[in-house]
Every structure is written in structure tokens, then in C-alpha cells.
Amino acid sequence: MFAAIALGLYVFQASQSIAGDPKTASIRALEVPSNFRGNLPLDGYVDATAREAYDISFDEMFHHQSEKFHPINGHGLNLGFVKASGWLRFAIERSPYALDQREQTVLLSLLPNMTNFIDVFVATDRPGLTARDFTKFEMGDYAPLLTSSFNGLDNVLRLHLPARGRLLVYIRAANIDTSLNLSATLHSPEGYGKRILNSNLVVGLWMGGMLILIAVQLVFFCLDRRSLYGLLALHIFFTTLAYFGGLGLSRLLLFPSGGTGNDLFIGTSNWLGLTTGTLCIASILDLQQRYPRLALFYRLGAVAGLVGVALVLTGHNRWFTPISGPLILFVTTTALGVTMIDFWRLRHTEAALKLAAFALLWAGLLLTNSQRYGVLPLPNWVSKSYGTTSIIYFILITGSLAIRLRMAEETSRTADRKAIEAASAAEALATRRVAERTSQLEEAKRTAETALQAELEAQKMQVRFMEVISHQYRTPLAVVRSNLESVRFTLPTDDAANRERLDRAQQAIRRLVEVIEINLSRSVFQGSSFDPAFARSPLGEVIDHAAKRIKDLFPTAIIDRDDSKVLGIRPVSVDCEMLSLALVNLLENSIKFSPADTPRVVISLISHDDFAVIEIRDFGIGIPKNELHDVITLGGRGSNVSHLEGTGTGLSLVARIVSAHHGRFEISNALNGGTIARIFLPA
């Protein structure tokens, strides 16, 4: 009897489940078990269609466009980048074997959560059902958050299955500037809680890992100041922001009121991630140095990312977004090819890590694009492949950079060690050479000292010779001179001719004596006895003494004195003999290089600042301008006096004497011809 009652109850419920409006009779219904605890896919129970316009009303779709729906094998839409709206419909009902008569609650999850517009229409199927009987739920990015049905990871709607009959669900979805993907899954409240807990844990680990990777790049940058680490940190940062928005966290935390804000956030992050990513990969692979043409395409990719940012901000991203996937695929494919070549050539750990990183990134990108563009009928979770492989990619790239940094450090240490060894060898070589050079210098010093000693001895001998000559000549010259004086006294007063001859003889004797005295002084002052004996003396007397001596040598010379500026000059501390010799040398040069039969020299004594200046001006042939400095050096002579006798020691001796008096010697050409020599003596 109990079996009959159960059979009758089953038949009754079955008859109730199939009762409904004829328009919905073709909709397949999924039975939800009463002990349902996890998730329940809708595969095989979903009808779908796509419309050219989003603004078609639900009433028109329900009453007049039902024939447009067609069964699909999966449980969602994957239309790619289309300017159209997608529709899903399905029916769910309680299991006819359920013994209790209470409503059963299930959760409808709609992914991905970045879909702009999602409208869900729900009603219990019955005869005469109209569009007005459906309850509408607005979801998606552009709708305000539903307080009790949105968790930040997906769009969730709580459905209450009636005790009898089935629940009809129509879903309309559309995107403005991204690919249109939408999948529907049923969850039990208990199972969904565990799923959300696990999902949040995975998201937290992913976000934390990305932040750690950013910190690692900053540490690398502190250790090695290369722009690569900054680019990689920016690439990780914008990738993190893109998934922060794609997972719904930006929607939950930043844009709870809906609108375009979340789209702008995600779009900008994606395009900036493309820009920094292409520049980063080009830097990692050193394309500018190795493959400059390929590097040019990468720079164009970076520019495309900036253009994408501008289009996002101006609301025209839909027309440019479809190129992002192929562009990123081109970048990763070429990078994979380069790393393959590098691994084939180098076969070391860094190249292997780079190859593994770009291979994983390429595979994840290929799967994600295939799902998002609708190339393959892949489930929605496949779109997360790029996010999963990207963190592994960043970890492997960071590892390769760490190895590169370690290799660079090891290379630096090796270079330092070799440099130290080379420096030690160079130091040893330098020590040997210094020892050799020191020995050579000591030998040269001994040679120089020997030569100097010989020169000093020669100079002493020269001085002694000149002293002997002076002594030997003075006595006979004095005898001759006194006899000439005696003879002159014996001559008659009117014997002018003989008296003149005697005067000329005496003048010649005085000149010969002066020449001997001057040469003796030169010999003494040019030798080792160059030691001034200073005494305060009037400069006028020194000048007169020098003029008198030079007059004995050159009786026909005209020596003028210009004392117009002599006022205020006090006696100066000088060695009168040395200074007189210097003036004699200057006067002798002035007279010798004056072409006139009666050469003229002007001597001036001038007070200038803190100096007493002795100026000697002649009217001779002068000195070539570019040789004024050279004639002061020992042995220096002007090129215009090569036809005249001379040793080139006179002016150098003058310079030495003036320097010994702590003065300054200058020589220059006069404007109207001739030469001006100036001796500056401290007053």
C-alpha cells in the first residue's frame, strides 16, 4: 500500500513539473538533487542566442523571438569582441524524488564579473506565463552592487526553487569594449562558501606574491642601478592592477555604484601593462644591442599601449582592444624564439629560466586569448590561465635576474682579483724598475757631480787664469802708462801731434784694463762665487759708475741720462759691483747692436709702485718679437745678429743678477725701433 502511495505521489509531481506555458515547453529543465552540496554544471540544459542590439526588450524576446534560441553543449556564451548582446535561458526544478515540500535555495553564479550589463529574469513556469510575471535582477559593472548577492569575485543570485514546478531563468549580457564571455553555474550555499573561501585564499596568495616580486625588484634596483628592475616592477604593478580589477576587487572597493569607472580602471591598467611589458622584455633580452629591428617593433608595441590608454579615456577602446591580444602574442612569441636561441647557444641556468618563463607565459596567453576571443569552446576558468602563468613568469624572470646579478658579482670579483693580481705584478715590476731607475739616477748623479766638480774646477781655473792675466797685465800696463805720462811731460807744449798720440795710447791702455776687469768680473759672477754682498747705495752712483766704464770701452758712444722721474727714489740695498756689471752688459749690447757710427743710449731712473726701475733704451736693430724670451736664456741670441760676434751669455747673466736682487728683468721692443731693457729693484 505504501508503494502505491509513493508511486501516485511521484506521478503527481511529474505531471506538475511538465505543466507550463506552451512557449516554454521546449526549454530543458535541470533537476537539482535534494542533497545537493557542491556545484552543478548546466551543460546540456542551456539555450543561447545573440542579438545585434542590446536594447531589445525582454517582452519581445520572450513572446516573439523564442525561436532564435538554440541548444548549446556548454553552459555559457563566448562571443569574443562583438557589438551584440547575448542571451541564455534554462530551467531548473527540484528532484521529483524529494519527499519534503519546502523550497530549495540554490545560488546562480555568473562569470566573469567584469561584464558590463547582466539582466536576469526569473519566474516560475505556469500556463499563460507572460513577461510581466518575471522578476528582473540588474547585475554587472554598470549596476550598483547587490548587498547580499555580490562578493567581489563574481555575480551571484539567490534562486528559490518552488516545491512544485520549475523555475525559468533568462539572462541578457552585453559588453561595451571588451569580449563578451558569460557562463552560468549553480552552487549550493554550503559549497559556494567553501569555494569563495578557497578563491579568496588563492587571490590573496596571488596578490601577495606579486607585491613581494615588486619589492624584490626594488631591492635589485638598490643593488644594481639598472632601469630594467624599475621597468619590471612597473610591469608587475600594472599586471596586478589589471587582475585587481578583473577579479572584481576594484568594483567592490573603488566603484560600488557602478558606471564606467571600473572599465576605465581595468582598460588603463591593461594597456599600461602592455607598454611596460614590451619595454621590460626588450630590456631583459637586450634587443636594442642584439636585434635592433625587433626592438623597433617592441617600441611600437609600447606606443600602441599608450594609444590604448588614450582610447580608453575617450571611450573608443572597443575598436582598438582586439589588437591587444595579437600584439601581446607577437611579443611573447618572438621573445620565446629569442630565448630558445639563447638556450641553444649558452645552455646555462639563466637561459633555461628565461626559456621556461616565456614558454609558460606564451601558453597562458594562448589559452586566455583562445577563450576570450571565442576561438575554442573553452570554459571560463581558462581565461585565468594568463594570470596563473604570469606570476610564475615573474618568479622565473626574477630568478634569472638574480642569477645574472650573481654572475655579474662573481665576474666583478674575478675582475677585482685579476686587477689585484695585475696591480701586484705591476707594483713588483714598478719596484724593480724604480730600483733600476734609482741605480741609474745614482749613477747619473755621480756622473753629474763629477761633471759639476770638473766644471767648478774649470771655472776656478778660469777665474784664476783671469786673475793671473789681470795681475800680469796690470804691472806692465802701469809701467807703460807711467812712462807715457813721463814722456808727455817732457814734450814741448806746442807738440800737439805727439801729445795726441800719447793720449790715444793712454786711452787704449785704459780700455784694455777695463776689458780685463769686466771679463774678470764676468768670470767670477758666472762661477761658483755668485754671492751678492748687499749694501744700501744710491742707484745714480751705480749708473754713473757703469756709464764711465762703458765710456772707456766705447769712447764714441753717446750715453744720455734722463732723471726727470728720479724724484722720491731712496738708496736701494744692492751689490754695487754685480749691478754695475749688469748695467755694463746691457749698455754694451745696446751699443754693439746699434748700427750708427755714434750709437746713442738713454738711461732713465724711474720710481714705479714699490720698485726702482732702471731703464736702458737704445735705437738699434731690436729683437724679433717671438724671440724676446729666448734671448734671456743662457746661450740665446736673436736671429738677426748671427753675423755679429757673441756668446749669448750677457743677458742671461743680467737676469741672474736681477733675480739675486729679488727683482724683475724685462726686455721689449720700442715703438720707433730699438730695444728697451728694464731692471725692477725692490725699493
Description:
It is a single chain. By secondary structure, this protein is of the alpha+beta class. The chain has helices at residues 2-18, 58-64, 189-223, 227-246, 249-253, 261-284, 287-290, 292-314, 324-346, 349-372, 385-490, 496-526, 539-553, 576-592, 650-660; strands at 29-32, 39-41, 46-51, 70-72, 76-80, 85-94, 104-111, 117-124, 135-139, 155-161, 166-174, 180-187, 535-537, 558-562, 572-574, 600-608, 611-618, 664-669, 675-682. It is built from 15 helices and 19 strands. β16 (600-608) and β17 (611-618) form a beta hairpin.
Layout of helices and strands, plus pairs?
Blueprint: H1 2-18, E1 29-32, E2 39-41, E3 46-51, H2 58-64, E4 70-72, E5 76-80, E6 85-94, E7 104-111, E8 117-124, E9 135-139, E10 155-161, E11 166-174, E12 180-187, H3 189-223, H4 227-246, H5 249-253, H6 261-284, H7 287-290, H8 292-314, H9 324-346, H10 349-372, H11 385-490, H12 496-526, E13 535-537, H13 539-553, E14 558-562, E15 572-574, H14 576-592, E16 600-608, E17 611-618, H15 650-660, E18 664-669, E19 675-682
Parallel strand pairs: 1-6, 14-16
Antiparallel strand pairs: 2-12, 3-4, 3-6, 5-12, 6-11, 7-10, 7-12, 8-9, 8-11, 13-15, 16-17, 17-19, 18-19
Helix pairs in contact: 3-4, 3-11, 4-6, 6-8, 6-9, 9-10, 10-11, 11-12, 12-14, 13-14, 14-15
